[in-house]
Amino acid sequence: MTDTLLLPAAIAALALAAAFWRFLVGPRPVDRVVAFDGLTIIAITGLVLSALASGRSIYLDVALVYALLSFLGVIVAARYLEGGEQ
Amino acid sequence: MSDTFAPVKIFSVTLLFWILLNGALEVDVLLVGAVVAGAITFLLAGSLSFLSGYRLTWESARATLGYLGYFLRELLKANLSLARVVMDPALPVEPAIVKVRTRLKNPVARLLLANSITLTPGTLTVEMKGEWLYVHWVFAKTTDPNVATAEIVADFEKFLEKMYD
Amino acid sequence: MNALAILGVMVMTAGAVFLAFAGLGLYRMPDTYTRIQAGTKATTLGTILTLVGAALIMPDWGVKLLLIALFLMFTNPLSSQVLARAAHRAGVPATKESKADALAEDREELA
After folding, report:
1. pLDDT tens, A29-57?
2. Structural domain of residue C18, as residue ranges?
3. Within a domain: residue C78?
4. How many domains are contained in chain C?
5. Is the CB of residue A47 less than 8 Å away from at least one CB of chain C?
6. A70, A40 contact by CB (below 8 A)
7. What is the pLDDT of residues B101-119, one digit of tens each?
8. CA-based angle C13:C14:C15, to the nearest 5?
9. How many CB atoms lie within 10 A of CB B21?
10. Taking the model in full, what pTM does it have?
11. What is the distance between the alpha carbons of residues C29 and C43, in angstroms, rounded to a whole number?
12. Minimal Cα–Cα distance from C101 to chain B, Å?
């Protein structure tokens, strides 16, 4: 079972790498926040895969709280960025 | 927006959320959930307005199902068109921010409309002001507000109008 | 391994492919707004599919997975909109390919 999950895990890792590249190069702060938002959502898939691989549903609670916190984080970051580049 | 059923709706949604969170339908889960949902309803009935305005009618329930089906189809289409664009070496995008108009007045219906636009092919809500929505469109066919409204807003609006007052 | 679990792995793989499209979109798209578009749509569908796939593998977890999916369907477009709005208010420019910006034209009267 766990072996077959390696395929989706590997593809999701590619997605993480591409989003992380955008996080590193920016160029603007808002681009980094967009990339960060993408990274956290892809990480939820990672948590679900961990839950399946370990057979422990506690990872799903972690995923839910993680989704909630990253949503709040993005909203706060956006509020801050609205100040602008003038 | 006075809604006599608002407390009932808040209570049922809070209880449902509690049951989903627990993932179990047992007596003690239900009892605790009912107490907590009751307390939330009692304390927050005045300020939790996000459920008010949803119609409790058969027509509204049918519209909700139709909306869900249409939304999921559009989400799939959005992803396939996006996949084509990002795989294309030439990256064919022709973006514009266009103005569209909505008749919807209910704040929840407007929020759902904005979210739906964001998840459907090539469009992203950037700003809402009164009846106007400013939409970023990756394949902008037009910048005429009326044509863009018919293209982007009209289908979702038909469902949402039946769902919300 | 039963048929449902095999289907689940396939659905999860399809979801991961959409996540990869999201990553590719974030990597390739020319400006902030088009990157937000690519990011939000593909991560939403991709995550929904991986959650559905996980529910097929582990039906007992279905309810909690459904809850995560509903939560994401609601918050993911919302955070994208808030980011796009912040970018536009902060004056982040769109790509040179852009045809029009009705919001910039109306910005004065909106303020």
Report:
1. 889 999 999 999 999 999 999 999 888 88
2. 3-95
3. yes
4. 1
5. no
6. yes
7. 888 888 888 888 888 888 8
8. 90
9. 15
10. 0.83
11. 15
12. 5
B75 interaction partners in chain C (CB closer than 8 Å): 41, 44-45
Say if C102 falls within a structural domain.
Answer: no
ipTM above 0.90, yes or no: no
**Which residue among C30, C42, C84 sits closest to B93, beta carbon to beta carbon?**
C30
- The neighbours of chain C, by the rule of 3 or more Cβ pairs under 8 Å, are A, B
Q: Where are the domains of chain A?
A: 3-17+27-81
State whether residue C73 sits within 8 Å of chain A by CB.
Answer: no
Token output for B1: 């927006």
pLDDT at B1 over 60: no
Cis peptide before C59 (omega within 30 of 0): no
C5-22 pLDDT, tens per residue? 889 999 999 999 999 999
Contact C24, C56 (CB under 8 A): no
Retrieve residue B62's tokens: 């049918």
Where b means 16+ CB within 10 Å and e means fewer, B103-136 reads ebebebbbbbbbbbbbbbbbbbbbbbeeebbbbb
